[in-house]
Design brief:
heterodimer, A: alpha/beta, Ubiquitin-like (UB roll), Alpha-Beta Plaits, Rossmann fold, 5 domains, 7-stranded mixed β-sheet, 5-stranded mixed β-sheet, B: alpha+beta, Glutaredoxin, 2 domains, 4-stranded mixed β-sheet, 6 helices, elongated, binds iron/sulfur cluster, binds FE2/S2 (inorganic) cluster
Amino acid sequence: MADVTLTVDGKKVTAPAGTLLIEACKTVGIEVPSFCYYPNLSLQGACRMCLVKIEKMPKLQTACTTVIGEGMIVTSDSEEIKQARKSMLELLLGNHPLDCPVCDAGGECELQDMTFTYGAAESKFMEAKNHKDEQQWSPVVFFDRPRCILCYRCVRVCGEGMDVWALGVQNRGVSSVIAPNREDHLECEECGMCIDICPVGALTSGAYRYKTRPWEMKHVGTICTHCGDGCKTTLGVRRADTGMEIVRGDNRDKSGTNGDFLCIKGRYAFDFANHEDRLTQPLIRQNGKLSPATWEEAFELIGKTFAEIRDSDGGAKIGVIGSTRTTNEEDYLLSKFARVVLKTNNVDHHRTADFPALASALRGKEGATASMAEVFTAPAILLIGNDPTEQHPLLAWQIRNNVRLHRARLYVINSNSIKLRRQATSFVQIEPGMEGQAAAFLAGSDAAADTLANSSTKKEEWIALRDKLRGEQNLVIVFGSEIVGDGLAKLVKFGSAISGAKFVCLADYANSRGAADMGLYPDLLPGYHSIVGNSQFHQEWGEIPQAAGLDLPGMVEAGKAGQLEALYVVGSNPVGRLDIDPFTFSKSFVVVQDMFLTETAVIADVVLPAANAYEKSGTFTNTCGDLQLVKKAGEVTGTKSDFEMIVRIADAMGFEMRKLVPFGGGTRADMGQSRGAQSGEADRHAVWLEAHGLEPKMSPFDPTAILDEIQRLVPGYDVSRVNLLSGNSEHTSLAEAGTSAAHKPESVSPANDSLFSSGTLGRYSRALNSVSESHEVKTAEVSAD
Amino acid sequence: MVPHYPTKRSALVPTLLYAQDEVGFLSDEVIAELAGRLDLTELEVRNVISYYSMLTTKPRGKFNVQVCTNISCLVRGGEEILQHCAKKLGVGHKGTTPDGLFSLEEVECIGACSWAPAAQVNYDFHENLTTEKMDKVLDECRMKA
Ligand code: SF4
Ligand code: SF4
Ligand code: SF4
Ligand code: FES
Ligand code: FES
């Protein structure tokens, strides 16, 4: 659009025609105060805080609804304007309870800030304030009516942003009130967006209410540990007896690809970290019972046993199961540890997507994967399978808002009438299991159209759909775990004929993609390099066993046959999640690193208490391939990171440390004490180092040393370190991936988590449990009548 | 009626009025039905109902007597008319007589200021009221019932 030039407070401002005055002001650093205006939501013009003076216009105008015009002369601040804003505040404060000392928003309240800026107004009201008790609308949403300033941000974000429409406005004028969709409670997606967006403390969160004050927390922006989308969540932590307690999750830091968005999991489901069932001491099985032991005893036992088995019967008698929630550094380290220390290729993880097939299909194709940010800007999107609203909430948000704000065309092929059909230009329902056929049809097989055609969609319609898709450019093709192996290759073939098409393959856990990229496979090394051959890993790592190892089902078989002498499980619960008979491994020496005594941990011989992703540093790769920094927020005394534990086991096996972790190349510094009178010193040093862009790499426990190696060796990971450390996401590429070996598409099994569940982790989240319970109760009530 | 409007939801207020005339008030069933027909959530329908004082979700009497006490009517005796009605019907603001015949409401300006004091019974206006005239209006209603 053509540019328009205007003057604000004497400064020249140039912005595209159609820009709102309030946004144009921002571009030159002039902040016009606002309550009801919120970027990307419909205009409300309700609060009149944004009044400015525009020459030749008789009255003060609202900057949030005025579109800029050529030659406009605007004054954003003057005595008259100040006075007008002050009177607006006076009206707002007229019935405001002023309970700032106990209000959750106190200290980060926009009304407080404005009052501070414009000075306390003298109140002319003599009437008693109208009090209403606080209401609980859902396990996570509370409403304090008197604090509400009726900006309607919550109503709009819930409707326009979330497409839930659970909040409304009732009555009018002074008696207007925000109302939930079920008279006295909410039936909604419980995302908490309404709470985060509320400028005051009218909507508050069940997870955080009255717990602490904003200034008592340290705020750490890190990556959510639940689904595979990689939202940045800001965790508020506070010193506690057990270390650093996470007390809040929100979206204070909007620098992530998720912008304003967080679903219930990223916002509230951090509470598993504070669960009283957390393990804080190593356990060793003695006389059939798991009993507390010291770290030294545990590492010594594990090291000795692993080494003995390797040396007497060979590493192939040891199995390793990795995690989809540990960092890339840990996954890489585990993959390397298995191969070079344990001498085994029996390595696997819970696969929820067929990344090896994707890598092999996209080999040599530059820029063929879309980042999460691109899902919001693409002109057209094809979605096959999956239900993003439930399983990939951020992706669903990106798609929905791309359609709403940029009029993207969305094509949906699904076996269920998923919620995103409401945004779809075209929605085609297929029989379950026919997704692969749909891919084959798109790739050109007209025979597949006959199998696909059903009562709702005739063959001609399928052909019309394909023609339309072929006519698109820069199409983003998103697909779920229904598309694997051959179907995936077909889909890529179809997409490759469309100019600028990019792919997103959906996997279910926070670092599922990382686990795959870092080579937690029996036949693949990091970067999808075959275990047989002579890749950079063969050259750098030293001797690697050359035959493909056992995958997870293979390890189960070996266990049953008494052929698996040891099993090392890092942050995974295969017994609980993959329906494995717990007696399978009764003859094996089982070591489990986990936060809780899971179904897998109870059968272990040694259990090591692990820190979770909110309690360590490293990187995650989201399902799109966006690499992001994971920062340590919480801390639970008595736990260790998986990274440290792997290193300690290697050490106990007598392995030369520098061959495993190339540490020592960075800064040297005295990090001070981490406990006792000077506790916090280490943190302060770390903060200083970080602020100066220094990475310590002082000890073999420092994951940045492995990050160096990942960036050097794993194809597609040589992204900008500066950007990464600044907290931005960096898109990795699969173009240079190795020639992936054969793999089994049938081993992909989706997690089937919903909006309110999150694998084993989710079971330890009170927030998620209370929400699912309340939703179940309601469903029962409905079906009863 | 829906096709007369550029968007479906625009038909909401007139539809609500028709439904209220027919059913007497806007019951949960009516709300659910209209929400379905106009592609709105029930919450949205309720929001609109709560905005307009002439829409009601509770049953009212057959004759809804709305007496204006806004400024013009106030200076010309509107308050007296209201008190008179209250006494005669035995109910106050927003009350309904036990026989379900009359409801009383005190309302803001109904746009009949030139003929104040004024009252509106259902859709009929009655102007230049005196207590006697009001009696007649009410009696006529009772006759019609
Ligand atoms: S929690 Fe989310 S879905 Fe529920 S009312 Fe608030 S914004 Fe809407
Ligand atoms: S509850 Fe908060 S966000 Fe919603 S209208 Fe009131 S002040 Fe605005
Ligand atoms: S969408 Fe996924 S990554 Fe984002 S907050 Fe929810 S669970 Fe976490
Ligand atoms: S911000 Fe402009 S009227 Fe509220
Ligand atoms: S004031 Fe009564 S009709 Fe206008």
